[in-house]
Design goal:
Pfam families: PcRGLX_1st (PF19501), PcRGLX_2nd (PF21345), PcRGLX_3rd (PF21346). This protein is about 25% helix and about 25% strand. By secondary structure, it is of the alpha+beta class. Helix 7 packs antiparallel against helix 21.
């Protein structure tokens, strides 16, 4: 890719600044607002519990989202959080979305360590909350931000290369010089000769802003790029999260690739801290987590296992991490020879695949490494320090997003250096080159022929990673002393699975958010139970396939495959458009709706990983295609179809509103102006039969996959009251009005859009332009939400007409529109449109058709066998099982149709 034009860079910088202001505006929650205010009618208390057993554990805190019914809770209302036994818990609350009447739609709430020990809570609007015993406070100077949780104090830089200058506890520096490090390699060694050279870049801050200031939670955002000399590249965005009373903090780290895929190979990508060491070498401790609750438990200078015994009490204290008795009290045969006991200053834990980690150590540079153990899947957590304090650190999804690595260096000196490698320098360099030479597909006709054989839509220059991103999560503890074994296990567990508070399905459904298209799991009849069992089967199948097929890796984890190859007993990972799914036909939505109705932790975590992946890796965040996503393919960025249907905010909204995750909020805000991308790239350029040049006042935009993505971004900006909320609302209303005004409404298919007015030109002649894909990328969900929010009868009627006639007979279609819709597929997926129209109009015939199309049209019909076929060698690489009939397109649509049909017309279900 050529460098970004200066105009684009300035525009991107302005967007970042606006997003930062937006985040700060949303983030200024308070622990107390209007004590004594009376609760509004209908704003019943909400029950909140931990997603997994174990409560808060060793984590610094948790932030969760709560929905409220329309009109129930006025804006500005205070909230109180209490345990089951009535003990109030300090909570910081803020609005994340509003209903059009101004009442609260979604609120976010943060709790710190004061929530530890309790399993269930009640959140009540309209009453004063408890003030935290320890407040998190933020002070700013021209160059620094100081955050004090009451237990630790962190100094964050606004410029330079040290993101975190220091972390202190009780006046003692536990860690200093928190910084980012990037290793670049300019070429690859393809063969048995190695000549590639490395160079190191350091993170350089360009801006730092405080987004929240407490009293329970504070957030600092830092943006910059990696620099060496005059070159600055690989932009980063880092957020640091602090909670009142916590001894730890969390980091969310995002990089965006802006290199040359043929020259800029990332050799290592890491976060590094310096840990001052004050204790004697025998009172310094190394703790490195393995799998499960396993740990390497050692001292920098060990006194166990020696030929001479210092004494049982000495040995026991060292293993526990306690201060040893004065050496003068030991067996002097040990004391007088301590200088001959090696000190082990360097440790490395490397996880180069999902199935194996190796641990080694050495005394110091220039000397050989000694194997120290290994296993399958390390937790990605370690501690270095001593009896007077030390630093715990961990990287989430350590083995899932391999290759990863943890380093400790110099622990025998005055200070250790710890590095959490998001990309291990011991692995092969990050190779993002396109995977084939184009195969002679230089013209559109040749590319369409390629599409007809491998399903890959290739175009020279389009298979680029320029602008894709990846987000990682890290956690750090400033310990007053070496933690006990139980505390270390708890810290490692918090890294692996950050504790998450959540609202239950009943309260989520009561609020009627996300279009009211889900209801809690219901097994009250045999017919409903059968569908619930099928939904459970499908989720378990994909969860198992992730493990069986090893769908892991830094760029891959969170995605699933598109189509199965029953001849090879393998998913078509190497066949064009049949490989990675990239959100094709909305598996993201299937998973989120499955969670909303069930409250299952495993579904949430699966959907969370997918949201982290698809919103970052499958979407461009820089360059000419910023705001567009890439269609499914062998590499996540390989296909030349760059479209709104992949980048759509529809897929990010549930995670954002359930967690208030700022990074996902950024991604959705960045899409508000993505209608401008239609000036850059015509989504259907290869199949147009008439000449077309993008015109700012007459852009061809489809009412299905295109408009649904735009509408999702506009809706989210409007309801969040973002910086462009007024524009977003106006765009929603004007496009809804002009879609409804088309001669055939949604059936018209496309319209000419004016970027300046935000309106579609109303066609003079009716056209039938229906595609089986139009409604399958969030349009169903968007229309349900918008109809509920905006009173526009003409728009509702246009959508209901589309819903009524997609699954109608050709004769019925022709009678209504003058011609039929042609041969359509995905009828099962569209049955939820029958269900929606039936629920809105009370038409029992449509409800009956919804269930008929669900059970007996296409997709997983009554002929489907819900069973597993075992697999073992030599058929497959790893033993497991298969179901050749299962494909992700069908699964996503079956899942959404089942969930929405049950919610909308479950009472009309036959037998």
């Amino acid at each position: 890719m050529s460098p970004i034009p200066r105009r684009s860079l300035l525009k991107a910088a302005a967007a970042v600044g606006a997003a930062a202001q937006f985040s700060r505006a949303l983030g200024q929650g308070t622990a107390q607002a209007a004590p004594g205010a009376e609760a509004a009618a209908g704003d019943a208390p909400v029950r909140v519990g931990w997603l997994e057993d174990g409560g808060l554990g060793a984590a610094p805190g948790s932030t969760f989202g709560v929905p409220w019914p329309k009109g129930a809770v006025p804006a500005g209302r205070d909230f109180a959080l209490a345990t089951e036994d009535g003990q109030t818990v300090p909570v910081q609350s803020w609005a994340t979305a509003y209903w059009p009447d101004g009442s609260l739609k979604w609120t976010a709430h943060a709790v710190g360590p004061a929530a530890a020990g309790a399993e269930k809570f009640t959140l009540t609007p309209g009453s004063g909350g408890a003030a935290p015993a320890q407040r998190v406070t933020v002070t700013e100077t021209g160059r620094r931000v100081t955050v004090d949780t009451g237990t630790i104090k962190a100094v964050v830089s606004k410029d330079g290369g040290k993101l975190v200058e220091s972390v202190t506890r009780d006046g003692t520096k536990i860690a200093t010089d928190g910084r980012l490090v990037l290793l670049r390699q300019g070429d690859l060694d393809d063969g048995d000769q190695g000549n590639a050279r490395w160079e190191r870049f350091d993170g350089e801050i360009e801006r730092a802003v405080v987004e929240q200031r407490g009293p329970v939670r504070a957030v600092v955002r830092i943006d910059g790029r990696h620099r060496k000399g005059s070159r600055r590249w690989l932009p980063f965005s880092v957020r640091l999260y602090f909670y009142a009373g916590a001894e730890s903090f969390r980091m969310v780290h995002t990089i965006t690739y802006d290199g040359d895929q043929d020259k800029d190979f990332v050799r290592g990508l890491g976060v590094r801290f310096t840990v001052p060491l004050r204790d004697a070498a025998y009172d310094r401790h190394i703790r490195i987590a393995g799998e499960g609750e396993g740990f390497l438990t050692e001292a920098v200078q060990g006194v166990t296992g020696l030929r001479r015994d210092p004494g049982a009490a000495v040995r026991a204290a060292q293993v526990k991490g306690e201060k040893l008795p004065d050496p003068s009290t030991w067996d002097q045969r040990v004391t007088t020879r301590l200088q001959y006991v090696p000190t082990w200053g360097d440790y490395t834990l490397s996880q180069l695949s999902a199935d194996g980690f190796a641990l080694r150590k050495r005394t110091k540079p220039g000397h050989g490494w000694i194997p120290a153990g290994g296993g399958r899947r390390a937790n990605g957590f370690a501690y270095v320090g001593g009896v007077s304090g030390g630093f715990s650190f961990g990287l989430r999804d350590f083995w899932e997003k391999h290759p990863a690595q943890l380093d400790v260096r110099g622990a025998a000196g005055d200070a250790a250096e710890v590095t959490l490698w998001l990309w291990s320098p011991e692995a092969q360099p990050m190779d993002l080159r396109f995977y084939h030479d184009g195969l002679g597909q230089d013209t559109y006709p040749e590319q369409l022929e390629g599409l007809n054989i491998t399903y890959e839509d290739h175009e020279p220059g389009f298979g680029t990673p320029y602008g894709i991103a990846r987000t990682s999560e890290l956690m750090f503890w400033a310990n007053a002393a070496t933690p006990t074994a139980d505390v270390l296990v708890a810290q490692a567990r918090a890294v692996r699975t950050p504790p998450q508070l959540a609202v239950g399905p009943e309260d989520l459904a009561r609020a009627k958010v996300f279009g009211g298209l889900f209801a809690p799991v219901d097994r009250s009849t045999p017919a409903k139970r059968a569908i619930e069992d099928q939904l459970d089967f499908l989720f378990a199948y994909y969860k198992d396939q992730v493990e069986q097929r090893r769908w892991y890796g830094f760029w891959d984890y969170g995605d699933i495959m598109h189509t199965y190859d029953e001849d090879r007993h393998q998913w078509r990972y190497d066949v064009g458009g049949y490989a990675w799914d990239n959100s094709e036909l909305s598996p993201d939505l299937w998973l989120w709706y499955a969670y909303l109705r069930s409250g299952r932790a495993d579904v949430f975590r699966f959907a969370e990983a997918m949201t982290r992946h698809t919103g970052e890796v499958d979407v461009y965040h820089l360059g000419q295609w910023a705001g567009l996503g890439t269609r499914h393919g062998v590499q996540h960025f390989a296909d030349s179809a760059k479209q709104q249907r992949i980048s759509t905010a529809v897929y990010r909204r549930p995670y954002y509103f359930l967690t208030a995750d700022e990074r996902v909020g950024d991604l959705m805000h960045d899409l508000v102006d993505s209608d401008e991308t239609f000036l850059v790239l015509d989504p259907i350029r290869k199949i147009r039969t008439e000449p077309y040049e993008p015109d700012r006042h007459a852009l061809s935009i489809g009412f299905g996959t295109d408009w649904s993505g735009l509408a999702a971004a506009w809706l989210t900006e409007w309801e969040r009251r973002g910086p462009k909320a007024a524009k977003a609302e106006a765009r929603l209303r004007s496009t809804m009005e002009t879609i409804a005004a088309q001669p055939n409404g949604f059936v018209q298919g496309t319209g000419l859009y004016d970027l300046d007015t935000g309106r579609f030109a109303v066609a003079t002649e009716p056209v039938v332009g229906v595609s089986h894909l139009s409604a399958m990328f969030g349009l169903v969900e968007m229309c349900a939400e918008l109809i509920d929010l905006i009173d526009m009868p003409a728009f509702e009627e246009a959508w209901l007409d589309y819903c009524r006639y997609f699954n109608a007979t050709k004769a019925e279609q022709a009678a209504r529109y003058g011609k039929n819709f042609g041969s359509l597929i995905l009828l099962q997926g569209h049955s939820r449109q029958d269900a929606y129209a039936a629920a809105r109009t009370g038409d029992d015939a449509l409800a009956a058709r919804a269930w008929r199309k669900f059970h007996d049209s296409d997709g997983y019909t009554k002929a489907m066998k819900w069973e597993k076929t075992p697999l073992k060698g030599p058929q497959v690489l790893e033993p497991g099982y298969e179901h050749p009939w299962i494909s992700t397109n069908t699964t996503a649509l079956f899942g959404l149709a089942a969930i929405q049909n049950l919610a909308l017309v479950g009472d009309k279900m036959p037998g």
